[in-house]
Amino acid sequence: MKFFTLLAFALASIHVTTGGSAENRCFCKVTGTLDDCACDVETIDSFNNREIFPKLQKLLSSDYFRFYKVNLNNPCPFWTDHSQCGLKYCAVKPCTPDEVPESIKSSSYKYSAEADQDIERCEMAEKLGAVNASLSDETRQALSEWKKHDDESDRFCMLDDEDSPESQYVDLLLNPERFTGYKGPEAWRIWNSIYEENCFKPYSVKRPLNPLMSNSGDIDGQGFHRWLEGLCVEKRAFFRLISGLHASINVHLSARYLLDENWFEMQWGHNVSEFQVRFDEELTKGEGPKRLRNLYFLYLIELRALAKVLPYFDHPSFHFYTGQPVQDAENKKMLLELLQVAKTFPLHFDETTLFAGNTEEATKLKEDFKLTFKNISRIMDCVECFKCRLWGKLQTQGLGTALKILFSERQIETMPSTSNTSPSFQLSRQEIVSLFNAFGRISTSVRELENFRSLLSKLKQ
């Protein structure tokens, strides 16, 4: 393994010969103001690395956030030749029943004083049951479908894992995201499906550096970028979110790469040559820095969502419910402190610029936005590497939850002030866990870029 890692470094140094320093080729254009934003890269770096990252990592190590419920056995809904990855590092170790706090398993929907009202709820259920018994099977089914439609109408991603009997809890701390060896045509098929079919892009416009399709007639992807700049701000933002997510995942894989393996230990760490292959301006025909800038755009979107959702978590009815009252109270305090810090960010993304045109057209575009993003969340069930599928599902659900928050501003602002009235805006435990862990991944990526800058600066020019 060490031999192949050294060989990768050598190959990277052979290919990179004319474009200045290694650091400049990756980062010289990852600076200044971001497109469609009033914020600059340097402000994000400083704010994340000093204010957000340390607080977020501490929060994510708690029981509430480390256990994630997921179904890794869903069949791929889009193609039939789906097989399982045989690589040993693709495996995910689910929790045994006694490893997950009982209160988390039995009350994934309970965050509040509702947890103390079970008896009252049971009594009410008995009364309603007498009425409900008079309903026909068809009516009960219709009511169930209406409720499901109401729950799903404001979501940007699929959350069917919550109720699936095949879902299992996974300890995210014991199954970290890192390089597994899953790559090649199988992995590119996933991203190809996302970019080519789910980013509002016509087939006639070629995406740069897609190994599954020819880029003939489209030198360095200039036709693609002319098309992208010609899109409305919403569709352009959609592509940049997906590109940013892709970039973030690639940063994680480069930062936690298997550098050496022998019979008594495995060494995981930063693979600089892998990072260069994915982000060096020369090796990616100018695409790498654009991808990193999209990562910062994604960071701004998710940070804005955290600032917006503060009233929901600050509401008297919200409580963590893990069966550890003291720790639950401390976690809520940590969470609110984190969200207060997020709110102080000086240059937040202005989401009011999205879907702000003609009301009818904006509504239609918003629905297209939701349906397309839900489709991407379903594509995650086609990922053959189970660990990649786990983190892919979590991060797409987290981004979908962030979008849900951004476009539920009115509901959040008009939440009742007392705990006796349930707010119309709700987040399931699945949404909460994915929201903060997904932002934790983006925050980690931004922090890792500082490490890669330092490592690249030490390479021979």
Textual characterization of the structure:
With 461 residues, the protein is mainly alpha-helical. It is 55% helix and 4% strand. The strands form two sheets. A two-stranded antiparallel ribbon has the order 1-2. Strands 3-4 form a two-stranded antiparallel ribbon. The longest helix has 29 residues, at 429-457.
Furnish the topology, listing elements before pairings.
Layout: H1 2-15, H2 22-27, H3 41-60, H4 63-66, E1 67-70, H5 102-106, H6 118-132, H7 137-153, E2 168-171, H8 185-197, H9 222-229, H10 233-255, E3 257-261, E4 266-269, H11 272-279, H12 287-308, H13 310-314, H14 325-343, H15 359-379, H16 386-406, H17 409-413, H18 429-457
Antiparallel strand pairs: 1-2, 3-4
Helix pairs in contact: 1-11, 3-14, 3-18, 10-11, 10-12, 10-18, 12-14, 12-16, 12-18, 15-16, 16-18
Features of the shown structure:
single chain; 461 residues; mainly alpha; two-stranded antiparallel ribbon; 18 helices; disordered N terminus
